[in-house]
Amino acid sequence: MQYNEELLNKIHFIMERIVVFDGINEVLEHIVKNAVSLTRAEAGTLRIFDIETGKIVIKASFGLSKGFLSQAPLKIGEGIVGRVVKDGEPFISPNIHDVKHCVHKELARKEGINSILSMPLKTSHKTIGCITVYRKTKDRFTDAEFLLLNIFATQSTEAIEKLRLLEDLKRQASFDSLLNIYNRNFLLTRLEEELMRASRHELVFCAIFLDIDDFKMFNDAHGHLLGDKLLVDLTKIIKRKLRKNDIIGRYGGEELIIIAPETDKKGGKALVEKILKLVTNHKFASSYGNIKGISFSAGISSFPEDGKTSKELIEKADKAMYKAKKEGKNKVRIYGWTKEA
Fold it and tell me: Can you give the residue range of the structural domain that contains 75?
């Protein structure tokens, strides 16, 4: 009991020390080094889910060779670590070579690794990665070491998320931290600016309201990490088709708004249909592999025909979008066009 209390005090001290580090890479190195120390292991890795690649990537390590660290990133659900991240459940074994779903047994053999303990890094609603510690003996990790790593992983997750939040705050005044496009507040500011410009010069422009079809079903089936990746990848597809002066922002959840200056409804419809075709043909990452069939519904309104305020334009584009939903989704509808909206 005294031994555990001393280690718990050590965890507290370790986490307090995190505030002296300048960047997230230093923090991750600090975490993995102390995870190894707490569990009396010989080596360790800290892996984080990379939203860009959809893979679980080694971000920090201790006591491992370059050969071991050169291993390819893992998919969610792949191998020991992939399952830990997918299920949010820890894994422990005194002999990694007996684990059927281990995908890097040869690397482990060359490294001399036998025992393994992998602990998920869990927030309140998703797993962001895992801490894994290794021994080169077949001595199993004890229940006390399992408990300590569990506590340490919880504290580490909080530290990582807080640091991410601090870094994101620099951009959050204007940008959505996940999608790297305007957030709702700044999107509305940009829309007001476009309204003033269009009014001054007697120009038209479109407001396009997009909502991903069946996004909740995708999240329920494949998890929030892959749901986030779907949003990121879909946004990248859209941005590739936009002009430099087009504006895109996240209105909320899976809802996006595009403002297309000096574009009438016909031009806006042509743009969105091109994007929709690219999206429906794209293979998005899922827990079953890459899949097609993702789509969105879109509604379009225009200035000055459908309104002269942000509220009017968004409400009418939203109404046209819901018309597209009611007509079977995977469609573009124009406010005021009776044949479509």
Answer: 2-171
